[in-house]
Specification:
- This protein starts with a helix and ends with a helix.
- Helix 7 packs parallel to helix 8.
- It has eleven helices and twelve strands.
- Strand 9, helix 8 and strand 10 form a beta-alpha-beta unit.
- The protein has about 300 residues and is α/β, with parallel strands linked by helices.
- It folds into two domains: about 160 residues, UDP-N-acetylmuramoyl-L-alanine:D-glutamate ligase; about 130 residues, Protein-Tyrosine Phosphatase, Chain A (Alpha-Beta Complex).
- Strands 7-8-12-9-10-11 form a six-stranded mixed sheet, sandwiched between helices. Strands 1-2-3 form a three-stranded parallel sheet. A three-stranded antiparallel sheet has the order 4-5-6.
C-alpha cells in the first residue's frame, strides 16, 4: 500500500527521475511493479536469507528479478558463480564492475574518500565522496555508472563532483560528536559489520571503539555480528533493545559480548544505553553505536536532533 501511494504521488508530481530501493529481494518486492530503465545491484550478501535464501545463489536469483528486458544492468557483484544468474535475465546491456566500470583509485581523505571512477566513457578523477569506508568507493562507482547509463552519455566531471559534495548518509559511519568521539553505524547485517571493521582499519588507522552500544533484531546472531565487527577489542559493550518488536533481548547480546571476553552491561532502552555509554566514556574515548537501524535511528535522535 505504501509503495502504491508513493508511486501515485510521484506520478502526480511528474518527477523526472525516481530511484526506487528494493525492500526485500527483488522479484516479489512491491517496487518491482516498475519497469526501470536502469537496474542496479551493488552486491549479494547473506541478508534476509531466512526468506529469500538460504544461499547467495538463491538471493541473487531474487535480486535478478528487478532486471527487465530493454534495461541496462549495472552490476556491482563480481562473483563468477553469481554473475551468470544476472546475465541470464537478458538485459539490453550489462555493465559489470571491474570490467566495464569501477573505482580505480580509492584513498582516505579529510572528511571521507577521494576516488577515481572509471566508466565506459572514461575516468573521472579526484572525486571527494564525503563518506567513510573503502566500500564507498565501489558504491560511488555504481552510482556514477547508473547515472551515465540512464542519460546514455558521459557525465561532466564537475557536475559529478558537485553532486558528491552534497551526499549525506545519516547513520552510516556518521561522526556525531568529537570529544568523546561518537560514531553511529547501522551495521545491521554481517556484511555491514565487516564493512564497519574495514572502515575502522582503513579510515581510523585501526582505532578500536572503547565503548560499544549494540542492539540487534531477531534475524541476526549477536555473536556473529559482534565478532565480525571485532567488538572483542572494546572495553565495554552496552547491550540494548531496538524499538522494534523483533528486537533481540539485550541479555542475549550481553552474553555474546562476554563470550568474546568483553565486559557487558544491559540497558534496555536505547536512550538509556547511549546516556550510559557517554557517562562512562572519557573525553578521549571512542563510542560506537551500532546494530539495528532502529537502534541507530533512536540514538541519532538523542545525539543529533535533541
Amino acid at each position: 500500500m505504501l509503495t502504491a501511494a508513493a508511486l501515485r504521488w510521484f506520478a502526480d508530481l511528474a518527477v523526472d527521475v525516481a530511484v526506487l530501493e528494493v525492500g526485500l529481494g527483488g522479484r516479489w518486492d512491491a517496487t518491482n511493479v516498475a519497469d526501470a530503465t536502469v537496474a542496479v545491484v551493488t552486491n549479494v550478501g547473506l541478508d534476509h536469507a531466512e526468506v529469500i535464501g538460504p544461499t547467495r545463489a538463491d538471493i541473487a536469483t531474487e535480486k535478478a528479478g528487478i532486471v527487465k528486458p530493454g534495461c541496462t544492468l549495472v552490476l556491482g557483484e563480481t562473483d563468477p558463480d553469481l554473475v551468470p544468474i544476472f546475465e541470464a535475465r537478458n538485459a539490453e546491456s550489462v555493465w559489470l564492475r571491474d570490467r566495464d566500470f569501477g573505482c580505480v583509485r580509492n584513498r582516505v581523505a579529510v572528511g571521507g574518500r577521494v576516488v577515481d571512477v572509471r566508466t565506459p566513457s572514461g575516468v573521472l578523477d579526484d572525486l571527494l565522496v564525503p563518506l567513510r569506508g573503502p566500500h564507498q568507493g565501489d558504491n560511488a562507482a555504481c552510482a556514477v555508472a547508473a547515472t551515465e547509463a540512464f542519460f546514455g552519455r558521459a557525465l561532466d566531471r564537475d557536475v559529478v563532483a558537485d553532486a558528491f559534495h552534497t551526499v549525506k548518509v545519516p547513520g552510516r559511519f556518521e561522526v556525531v560528536r568529537r570529544r568523546p568521539l561518537v560514531v553511529l553505524d547501522g551495521a545491521h547485517n554481517p556484511d555491514g559489520a565487516r564493512a564497519l571493521r574495514a572502515t575502522l582499519e582503513d579510515d581510523l588507522g585501526g582505532r578500536k571503539p572503547d565503548v560499544i552500544v549494540a542492539g540487534f533484531t531477531g534475524e541476526r546472531d549477536p555473536g556473529e555480528m559482534l565478532a565480525a565487527m571485532d567488538a572483542g577489542r572494546a572495553r565495554l559493550v552496552v547491550a540494548t533493545k531496538p524499538p522494534s518488536p523483533r528486537g533481540v533481548d539485550p541479555a542475549t547480546v550481553a552474553a555474546a559480548a562476554e563470550a568474546l571476553g568483553v565486559r557487558a552491561e544491559v540497558v534496555p532502552s536505547v536512550t538509556g544505553a547511549v546516556e550510559r555509554a557517554l557517562a562512562v566514556a572519557a573525553e578521549d574515548d571512542f563510542v560506537l553505536v551500532t546494530g539495528s537501524l532502529h537502534a541507530v535511528g533512536e540514538a541519532r535522535t538523542v545525539l543529533v536532533e535533541a
